[in-house]
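Fig. S4 source data, part A: sequence.
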Amino acid sequence: QLQLVESGGGSVEAGGSLRLSCAVSGDDGSRNCMGWLRQAPGKEREGVATIDTTGTINYAEFMKGRFTISQDKAKNTLYLQMNNLQPEDTAKYYCAAVSVPLWTKSCTARRGSRGFSDWGQGTQVTVSS
């Protein structure tokens, strides 16, 4: 059974940086699309960034170049480097995975909360002004 465990959240001031990690275990190799999503209080969960097994990356437009998704296959870990954080980035951040036909190019941040089959428990990011 796939397990996703996020870490690295915390509280920072505006302009600060954080790096989130997602440790993956129990992977049978079937999930070829992984992503980060976030959910702010009172808002729907939204996609932040995705990466597939070919290394193709997709970002939500609101990232504006501030966030970087990456993976270390040797460590079975997914990362999200977040720079120049702003108060509107305050949310709980989730790691997620799903199996998709890569030829459809559907491993994108637009998948949203219904587009993933496996989820971590989330890690809180709070940005103060």
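Fig. S4 source data, part B ends here. The longest strand covers residues 18-25.
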